[in-house]
Specification:
The complex is a heterodimer of chains A (185) and B (236).
Chain A lengths: L2 H22 L10 H9 L2 H18 L8 H16 L6 H26 L8 H10 L4 H30 L14
Helix pairs in contact in A: 1-2, 1-3, 2-3, 2-4, 2-7, 3-4, 4-5, 5-7, 6-7
Chain B lengths: L3 H16 L3 H19 L3 H24 L7 E3 L3 E3 L1 H24 L4 H10 L4 H30 L8 H32 L18 H8 L1 H10 L2
Helix pairs in contact in B: 1-4, 1-8, 1-9, 2-4, 2-9, 3-4, 6-7
The chains are: A mainly alpha (185), B mainly alpha (236).
Protein backbone atom coordinates (compact mmCIF):
# COMPACT_ATOMS: atom_id res chain seq x y z
CA UNK A 1 0.00 0.00 0.00
CA UNK A 2 1.36 3.43 -0.95
CA UNK A 3 0.60 5.21 2.31
CA UNK A 4 1.26 8.73 1.04
CA UNK A 5 -1.13 8.32 -1.89
CA UNK A 6 -3.78 6.76 0.34
CA UNK A 7 -3.71 9.66 2.76
CA UNK A 8 -3.76 12.20 -0.08
CA UNK A 9 -6.77 10.32 -1.48
CA UNK A 10 -8.44 10.54 1.93
CA UNK A 11 -7.79 14.30 1.96
CA UNK A 12 -9.33 14.64 -1.53
CA UNK A 13 -12.35 12.60 -0.45
CA UNK A 14 -12.84 14.70 2.67
CA UNK A 15 -12.56 17.88 0.56
CA UNK A 16 -15.34 16.68 -1.75
CA UNK A 17 -17.63 16.30 1.24
CA UNK A 18 -16.84 19.50 3.08
CA UNK A 19 -16.09 22.28 0.56
CA UNK A 20 -19.78 23.02 0.02
CA UNK A 21 -19.98 24.15 3.65
CA UNK A 22 -16.93 26.36 3.17
CA UNK A 23 -18.47 27.91 0.02
CA UNK A 24 -21.69 28.47 1.97
CA UNK A 25 -19.76 30.90 4.23
CA UNK A 26 -19.71 33.20 1.20
CA UNK A 27 -23.41 32.52 0.49
CA UNK A 28 -22.61 31.13 -2.93
CA UNK A 29 -24.86 28.51 -4.55
CA UNK A 30 -22.03 26.19 -5.57
CA UNK A 31 -21.33 22.67 -4.37
CA UNK A 32 -17.65 22.19 -5.20
CA UNK A 33 -18.13 18.48 -4.53
CA UNK A 34 -15.70 17.52 -7.29
CA UNK A 35 -12.63 19.64 -6.48
CA UNK A 36 -11.13 16.68 -4.59
CA UNK A 37 -11.92 14.30 -7.46
CA UNK A 38 -10.21 16.54 -10.03
CA UNK A 39 -7.17 17.17 -7.81
CA UNK A 40 -7.01 13.44 -7.06
CA UNK A 41 -7.01 12.63 -10.78
CA UNK A 42 -3.74 14.59 -11.11
CA UNK A 43 -2.04 13.55 -7.87
CA UNK A 44 -3.01 9.88 -7.64
CA UNK A 45 -2.76 6.66 -9.65
CA UNK A 46 -5.99 6.04 -11.51
CA UNK A 47 -7.40 3.25 -9.24
CA UNK A 48 -7.16 5.52 -6.19
CA UNK A 49 -8.57 8.46 -8.15
CA UNK A 50 -11.58 6.29 -9.12
CA UNK A 51 -11.89 5.13 -5.51
CA UNK A 52 -12.04 8.78 -4.38
CA UNK A 53 -14.85 9.45 -6.84
CA UNK A 54 -16.89 6.38 -5.85
CA UNK A 55 -16.28 6.69 -2.11
CA UNK A 56 -17.41 10.33 -2.23
CA UNK A 57 -20.93 9.15 -2.97
CA UNK A 58 -21.02 6.33 -0.46
CA UNK A 59 -19.41 8.24 2.37
CA UNK A 60 -21.55 11.27 1.53
CA UNK A 61 -24.62 9.06 1.91
CA UNK A 62 -23.53 8.16 5.44
CA UNK A 63 -22.17 11.49 6.59
CA UNK A 64 -24.22 14.14 4.78
CA UNK A 65 -27.34 12.94 3.04
CA UNK A 66 -28.54 9.44 2.08
CA UNK A 67 -29.27 10.50 -1.49
CA UNK A 68 -25.62 11.02 -2.34
CA UNK A 69 -25.43 7.25 -2.96
CA UNK A 70 -27.85 7.54 -5.87
CA UNK A 71 -25.34 9.69 -7.75
CA UNK A 72 -22.36 7.33 -7.49
CA UNK A 73 -22.52 6.88 -11.26
CA UNK A 74 -22.18 10.63 -11.71
CA UNK A 75 -19.14 10.82 -9.44
CA UNK A 76 -17.59 7.86 -11.25
CA UNK A 77 -18.19 9.51 -14.63
CA UNK A 78 -16.67 12.76 -13.34
CA UNK A 79 -13.62 10.89 -12.03
CA UNK A 80 -13.06 9.02 -15.28
CA UNK A 81 -13.53 12.18 -17.36
CA UNK A 82 -11.10 14.06 -15.13
CA UNK A 83 -8.56 11.26 -15.59
CA UNK A 84 -9.01 11.52 -19.33
CA UNK A 85 -8.39 15.27 -19.24
CA UNK A 86 -5.30 14.76 -17.08
CA UNK A 87 -4.00 12.43 -19.79
CA UNK A 88 -4.76 15.16 -22.35
CA UNK A 89 -2.86 17.65 -20.15
CA UNK A 90 -5.86 19.95 -19.75
CA UNK A 91 -4.98 21.04 -16.21
CA UNK A 92 -1.95 23.15 -17.08
CA UNK A 93 -3.51 26.49 -18.00
CA UNK A 94 -6.59 28.35 -16.81
CA UNK A 95 -8.51 28.35 -20.10
CA UNK A 96 -7.90 24.62 -20.68
CA UNK A 97 -9.05 23.93 -17.11
CA UNK A 98 -12.26 25.90 -17.69
CA UNK A 99 -12.97 23.95 -20.90
CA UNK A 100 -12.25 20.68 -19.10
CA UNK A 101 -14.49 21.76 -16.23
CA UNK A 102 -17.32 22.65 -18.58
CA UNK A 103 -17.08 19.30 -20.35
CA UNK A 104 -16.96 17.50 -17.00
CA UNK A 105 -20.12 19.39 -16.11
CA UNK A 106 -21.83 18.22 -19.29
CA UNK A 107 -20.88 14.61 -18.56
CA UNK A 108 -22.24 15.01 -15.02
CA UNK A 109 -25.44 16.51 -16.40
CA UNK A 110 -26.02 13.61 -18.81
CA UNK A 111 -25.20 10.86 -16.31
CA UNK A 112 -27.21 12.31 -13.42
CA UNK A 113 -30.34 13.12 -15.49
CA UNK A 114 -31.74 9.54 -15.48
CA UNK A 115 -31.31 9.30 -11.71
CA UNK A 116 -33.01 12.63 -11.11
CA UNK A 117 -35.89 11.80 -13.48
CA UNK A 118 -36.52 8.13 -12.70
CA UNK A 119 -35.72 8.05 -8.99
CA UNK A 120 -36.52 11.58 -7.84
CA UNK A 121 -39.15 12.69 -10.35
CA UNK A 122 -37.15 15.78 -11.34
CA UNK A 123 -36.68 17.02 -7.78
CA UNK A 124 -33.32 17.38 -6.10
CA UNK A 125 -32.34 18.92 -2.79
CA UNK A 126 -30.57 21.80 -4.48
CA UNK A 127 -31.79 25.02 -6.08
CA UNK A 128 -31.86 23.22 -9.45
CA UNK A 129 -35.40 22.14 -8.57
CA UNK A 130 -36.64 25.72 -8.93
CA UNK A 131 -35.22 25.89 -12.46
CA UNK A 132 -36.71 22.47 -13.26
CA UNK A 133 -40.11 23.63 -12.00
CA UNK A 134 -40.06 26.73 -14.21
CA UNK A 135 -39.17 24.66 -17.26
CA UNK A 136 -41.84 22.07 -16.47
CA UNK A 137 -44.47 24.78 -16.08
CA UNK A 138 -43.45 26.22 -19.45
CA UNK A 139 -44.40 22.93 -21.13
CA UNK A 140 -41.04 21.21 -21.38
CA UNK A 141 -40.92 17.49 -20.69
CA UNK A 142 -39.44 16.28 -17.41
CA UNK A 143 -36.26 15.17 -19.20
CA UNK A 144 -35.80 18.52 -20.90
CA UNK A 145 -36.45 20.36 -17.63
CA UNK A 146 -33.97 18.28 -15.62
CA UNK A 147 -31.28 18.56 -18.27
CA UNK A 148 -31.94 22.28 -18.69
CA UNK A 149 -31.74 22.93 -14.96
CA UNK A 150 -28.57 20.85 -14.61
CA UNK A 151 -26.99 22.67 -17.55
CA UNK A 152 -27.38 26.02 -15.82
CA UNK A 153 -25.90 24.80 -12.54
CA UNK A 154 -23.17 22.52 -13.87
CA UNK A 155 -21.86 25.09 -16.33
CA UNK A 156 -21.01 27.29 -13.34
CA UNK A 157 -20.06 24.73 -10.70
CA UNK A 158 -17.73 22.41 -12.63
CA UNK A 159 -15.59 25.04 -14.43
CA UNK A 160 -15.21 26.76 -11.07
CA UNK A 161 -14.20 23.47 -9.46
CA UNK A 162 -11.70 22.79 -12.26
CA UNK A 163 -10.22 26.27 -11.91
CA UNK A 164 -9.88 25.89 -8.15
CA UNK A 165 -8.26 22.49 -8.69
CA UNK A 166 -5.76 24.03 -11.14
CA UNK A 167 -4.89 26.85 -8.70
CA UNK A 168 -4.41 24.24 -5.95
CA UNK A 169 -2.11 22.15 -8.15
CA UNK A 170 0.02 25.22 -8.91
CA UNK A 171 0.50 25.73 -5.16
CA UNK A 172 1.51 22.15 -4.40
CA UNK A 173 5.12 20.95 -4.73
CA UNK A 174 5.78 19.45 -8.16
CA UNK A 175 6.77 16.08 -6.66
CA UNK A 176 3.13 15.63 -5.59
CA UNK A 177 2.01 15.25 -9.20
CA UNK A 178 1.60 11.54 -9.86
CA UNK A 179 4.17 10.00 -12.15
CA UNK A 180 3.56 6.36 -13.00
CA UNK A 181 7.28 5.84 -13.31
CA UNK A 182 7.68 6.82 -9.67
CA UNK A 183 8.64 3.67 -7.77
CA UNK A 184 7.16 4.41 -4.37
CA UNK A 185 6.87 6.75 -1.49
CA UNK B 1 -27.28 -3.54 13.38
CA UNK B 2 -25.65 -6.23 11.25
CA UNK B 3 -24.28 -5.36 7.79
CA UNK B 4 -26.45 -7.85 5.92
CA UNK B 5 -29.65 -6.11 7.01
CA UNK B 6 -29.22 -2.78 5.18
CA UNK B 7 -27.41 -4.58 2.36
CA UNK B 8 -30.40 -6.80 1.59
CA UNK B 9 -32.85 -3.97 2.16
CA UNK B 10 -30.95 -1.83 -0.37
CA UNK B 11 -31.13 -4.65 -2.90
CA UNK B 12 -34.84 -5.06 -2.13
CA UNK B 13 -35.46 -1.32 -2.57
CA UNK B 14 -33.64 -1.46 -5.91
CA UNK B 15 -35.74 -4.41 -7.09
CA UNK B 16 -38.94 -2.66 -6.01
CA UNK B 17 -38.29 0.06 -8.62
CA UNK B 18 -38.80 -2.56 -11.33
CA UNK B 19 -41.31 -4.91 -9.69
CA UNK B 20 -43.73 -2.61 -7.88
CA UNK B 21 -45.18 0.05 -10.12
CA UNK B 22 -48.53 0.88 -8.53
CA UNK B 23 -49.35 2.95 -5.49
CA UNK B 24 -50.98 0.28 -3.35
CA UNK B 25 -48.20 -2.31 -3.52
CA UNK B 26 -45.47 0.30 -3.09
CA UNK B 27 -47.29 1.76 -0.07
CA UNK B 28 -47.55 -1.68 1.54
CA UNK B 29 -43.86 -2.32 0.78
CA UNK B 30 -42.92 0.98 2.46
CA UNK B 31 -44.97 0.05 5.50
CA UNK B 32 -43.34 -3.37 5.57
CA UNK B 33 -39.83 -1.88 5.41
CA UNK B 34 -40.78 0.65 8.07
CA UNK B 35 -41.96 -2.13 10.35
CA UNK B 36 -38.74 -4.05 9.76
CA UNK B 37 -36.55 -1.08 10.70
CA UNK B 38 -38.63 -0.49 13.84
CA UNK B 39 -38.21 -4.17 14.75
CA UNK B 40 -34.49 -4.07 13.99
CA UNK B 41 -33.76 -1.05 16.17
CA UNK B 42 -36.65 -1.53 18.62
CA UNK B 43 -37.26 2.18 18.22
CA UNK B 44 -39.32 4.53 16.09
CA UNK B 45 -36.37 6.89 15.63
CA UNK B 46 -34.97 5.49 12.37
CA UNK B 47 -38.47 5.36 10.88
CA UNK B 48 -39.07 9.02 11.69
CA UNK B 49 -35.57 9.81 10.47
CA UNK B 50 -36.43 8.23 7.11
CA UNK B 51 -39.64 10.28 6.98
CA UNK B 52 -37.65 13.39 7.82
CA UNK B 53 -35.19 12.74 5.00
CA UNK B 54 -37.99 12.09 2.50
CA UNK B 55 -40.09 15.15 3.37
CA UNK B 56 -37.96 17.73 1.52
CA UNK B 57 -38.73 15.82 -1.66
CA UNK B 58 -42.43 15.24 -1.07
CA UNK B 59 -43.71 18.83 -1.13
CA UNK B 60 -41.76 19.92 -4.21
CA UNK B 61 -42.80 16.70 -5.97
CA UNK B 62 -46.46 17.18 -5.13
CA UNK B 63 -46.36 20.86 -5.97
CA UNK B 64 -44.52 20.53 -9.25
CA UNK B 65 -46.29 17.52 -10.71
CA UNK B 66 -49.79 18.17 -9.35
CA UNK B 67 -49.92 21.82 -10.38
CA UNK B 68 -47.09 22.84 -12.70
CA UNK B 69 -46.10 19.93 -14.90
CA UNK B 70 -47.87 20.58 -18.19
CA UNK B 71 -47.08 17.01 -19.24
CA UNK B 72 -50.05 15.84 -17.19
CA UNK B 73 -53.56 16.79 -18.31
CA UNK B 74 -55.56 19.26 -16.30
CA UNK B 75 -58.38 17.57 -14.39
CA UNK B 76 -59.87 20.39 -12.34
CA UNK B 77 -59.31 23.93 -11.08
CA UNK B 78 -58.92 24.76 -7.41
CA UNK B 79 -60.42 28.07 -6.26
CA UNK B 80 -61.35 28.66 -9.87
CA UNK B 81 -57.84 29.38 -11.14
CA UNK B 82 -55.26 26.89 -9.79
CA UNK B 83 -54.77 24.08 -12.30
CA UNK B 84 -54.82 20.65 -10.68
CA UNK B 85 -53.52 17.50 -12.39
CA UNK B 86 -54.67 14.22 -10.83
CA UNK B 87 -52.23 12.06 -12.81
CA UNK B 88 -49.43 14.32 -11.62
CA UNK B 89 -50.50 13.75 -8.03
CA UNK B 90 -50.42 9.97 -8.57
CA UNK B 91 -46.98 10.20 -10.19
CA UNK B 92 -45.62 12.42 -7.39
CA UNK B 93 -46.96 10.06 -4.72
CA UNK B 94 -45.40 7.07 -6.50
CA UNK B 95 -42.01 8.79 -6.69
CA UNK B 96 -42.24 9.86 -3.03
CA UNK B 97 -42.93 6.30 -1.94
CA UNK B 98 -40.05 5.06 -4.06
CA UNK B 99 -37.71 7.61 -2.47
CA UNK B 100 -38.99 6.54 0.96
CA UNK B 101 -38.14 2.87 0.34
CA UNK B 102 -34.56 3.82 -0.57
CA UNK B 103 -34.33 6.19 2.36
CA UNK B 104 -35.25 3.49 4.85
CA UNK B 105 -32.49 1.26 3.47
CA UNK B 106 -29.99 4.13 3.48
CA UNK B 107 -30.94 5.20 7.02
CA UNK B 108 -30.37 1.60 8.13
CA UNK B 109 -26.75 1.84 6.93
CA UNK B 110 -26.19 4.63 9.46
CA UNK B 111 -27.02 2.20 12.27
CA UNK B 112 -24.64 -0.55 11.22
CA UNK B 113 -22.18 -1.49 13.93
CA UNK B 114 -18.83 -0.06 12.75
CA UNK B 115 -16.70 -2.92 13.96
CA UNK B 116 -19.01 -5.37 12.18
CA UNK B 117 -18.84 -3.23 9.00
CA UNK B 118 -15.05 -3.08 9.16
CA UNK B 119 -14.80 -6.80 9.83
CA UNK B 120 -17.13 -7.67 6.94
CA UNK B 121 -15.23 -5.31 4.64
CA UNK B 122 -11.95 -7.10 5.43
CA UNK B 123 -13.59 -10.51 4.91
CA UNK B 124 -14.99 -9.27 1.57
CA UNK B 125 -11.37 -8.52 0.59
CA UNK B 126 -11.97 -4.83 0.06
CA UNK B 127 -8.47 -3.38 -0.46
CA UNK B 128 -6.80 -1.96 2.61
CA UNK B 129 -6.24 1.29 0.68
CA UNK B 130 -9.97 1.83 0.44
CA UNK B 131 -10.64 1.03 4.09
CA UNK B 132 -7.93 3.43 5.27
CA UNK B 133 -9.20 6.02 2.77
CA UNK B 134 -12.73 5.87 4.19
CA UNK B 135 -11.65 5.82 7.83
CA UNK B 136 -9.23 8.74 7.48
CA UNK B 137 -11.62 10.80 5.35
CA UNK B 138 -14.42 10.41 7.90
CA UNK B 139 -12.19 11.76 10.64
CA UNK B 140 -10.94 14.66 8.48
CA UNK B 141 -14.27 16.08 7.30
CA UNK B 142 -15.16 18.08 10.36
CA UNK B 143 -11.68 19.57 10.69
CA UNK B 144 -11.91 20.90 7.11
CA UNK B 145 -15.12 22.80 7.87
CA UNK B 146 -13.53 24.30 10.98
CA UNK B 147 -10.39 25.15 9.05
CA UNK B 148 -12.58 26.85 6.43
CA UNK B 149 -14.26 29.02 9.05
CA UNK B 150 -10.87 29.96 10.52
CA UNK B 151 -9.48 30.87 7.08
CA UNK B 152 -12.60 32.89 6.26
CA UNK B 153 -12.30 34.85 9.51
CA UNK B 154 -8.59 35.42 8.95
CA UNK B 155 -9.12 36.57 5.36
CA UNK B 156 -11.90 38.90 6.42
CA UNK B 157 -9.47 40.42 8.94
CA UNK B 158 -7.09 40.93 6.01
CA UNK B 159 -9.88 42.69 4.13
CA UNK B 160 -10.93 40.30 1.37
CA UNK B 161 -13.86 41.82 -0.51
CA UNK B 162 -16.58 39.29 0.29
CA UNK B 163 -19.30 41.52 -1.19
CA UNK B 164 -21.49 43.23 -1.98
CA UNK B 165 -22.75 41.30 -4.96
CA UNK B 166 -22.36 37.80 -6.25
CA UNK B 167 -19.37 38.63 -8.46
CA UNK B 168 -17.35 39.99 -5.54
CA UNK B 169 -18.11 36.87 -3.55
CA UNK B 170 -17.10 34.61 -6.44
CA UNK B 171 -13.83 36.52 -6.77
CA UNK B 172 -13.12 36.06 -3.09
CA UNK B 173 -13.73 32.30 -3.28
CA UNK B 174 -10.11 31.37 -4.09
CA UNK B 175 -8.88 33.36 -1.06
CA UNK B 176 -11.03 31.16 1.19
CA UNK B 177 -10.99 27.80 -0.59
CA UNK B 178 -7.37 27.54 -1.77
CA UNK B 179 -5.68 27.72 1.66
CA UNK B 180 -8.11 25.07 2.93
CA UNK B 181 -7.58 22.71 -0.01
CA UNK B 182 -3.81 23.12 -0.15
CA UNK B 183 -3.27 22.70 3.59
CA UNK B 184 -5.57 19.65 3.69
CA UNK B 185 -3.63 17.87 0.95
CA UNK B 186 -0.26 18.78 2.46
CA UNK B 187 -1.49 17.58 5.88
CA UNK B 188 -2.66 14.35 4.27
CA UNK B 189 0.72 13.71 2.66
CA UNK B 190 2.52 14.49 5.93
CA UNK B 191 0.21 12.19 7.90
CA UNK B 192 0.77 9.44 5.34
CA UNK B 193 4.51 9.65 5.93
CA UNK B 194 4.02 9.52 9.69
CA UNK B 195 1.72 6.49 9.47
CA UNK B 196 4.16 4.73 7.17
CA UNK B 197 6.84 5.21 9.82
CA UNK B 198 4.49 3.56 12.28
CA UNK B 199 4.12 0.55 10.01
CA UNK B 200 0.73 1.12 8.38
CA UNK B 201 0.43 -1.01 5.27
CA UNK B 202 3.34 -3.30 6.14
CA UNK B 203 1.16 -6.01 7.68
CA UNK B 204 -2.26 -7.53 7.07
CA UNK B 205 -5.11 -6.05 9.07
CA UNK B 206 -6.62 -8.33 11.66
CA UNK B 207 -10.40 -8.07 11.93
CA UNK B 208 -11.64 -6.80 15.29
CA UNK B 209 -12.26 -9.56 17.81
CA UNK B 210 -15.20 -7.93 19.57
CA UNK B 211 -17.61 -8.61 16.73
CA UNK B 212 -20.66 -10.56 17.87
CA UNK B 213 -21.81 -13.53 15.87
CA UNK B 214 -24.80 -13.09 13.64
CA UNK B 215 -28.06 -14.15 15.21
CA UNK B 216 -31.01 -15.73 13.46
CA UNK B 217 -33.00 -12.53 13.99
CA UNK B 218 -30.42 -10.73 11.81
CA UNK B 219 -31.00 -13.21 8.99
CA UNK B 220 -34.75 -12.98 9.46
CA UNK B 221 -34.75 -9.17 9.29
CA UNK B 222 -32.39 -9.14 6.32
CA UNK B 223 -34.20 -11.76 4.25
CA UNK B 224 -37.79 -10.73 5.08
CA UNK B 225 -37.66 -8.03 2.48
CA UNK B 226 -37.64 -10.59 -0.37
CA UNK B 227 -40.80 -12.56 0.52
CA UNK B 228 -42.52 -9.22 1.12
CA UNK B 229 -41.45 -7.96 -2.30
CA UNK B 230 -42.29 -11.21 -4.08
CA UNK B 231 -45.71 -11.54 -2.50
CA UNK B 232 -46.62 -7.97 -3.43
CA UNK B 233 -45.38 -8.48 -6.98
CA UNK B 234 -47.20 -11.79 -7.46
CA UNK B 235 -50.46 -10.92 -5.78
CA UNK B 236 -50.92 -7.29 -6.87
Amino acid sequence: MNTKHTFIAAACLALNLSLAKVAALLSLPVYLDTVGTIVGAVLLPWPLAVAVALCTSFLGAVVINPYWAAYCGTQLAIGLTALGFVYLKMFISWWKAIIAGFLIGMVAMIVSAPVTVVLFGGVTLSGTTAINAILLASGKSIWQSVIGGSFVVESIDKPLAALLALLTLKRLPKEFIYNKNDSGE
Amino acid sequence: MDTIIPLFWTIGAGLSVFLLRDLQTLFVFCLGLGLLIILAKKSLRPFFQAIGWTFPFVFPLLGIHSFLNAGFPETSRLLGFITFRHEGLIFATLVSLRIFTFTIALVAWRYVDRERLFSDAIKAKIPLNVLVLLAVATSTIRSISEKGKAVYTAQQARGIPAGPGVIARFLSLPAVILPVVTSTILDGARRGGQMKNRGLGTTMVAPPFNVKRRKSIDYFLALSVFPLLLSLWLFK
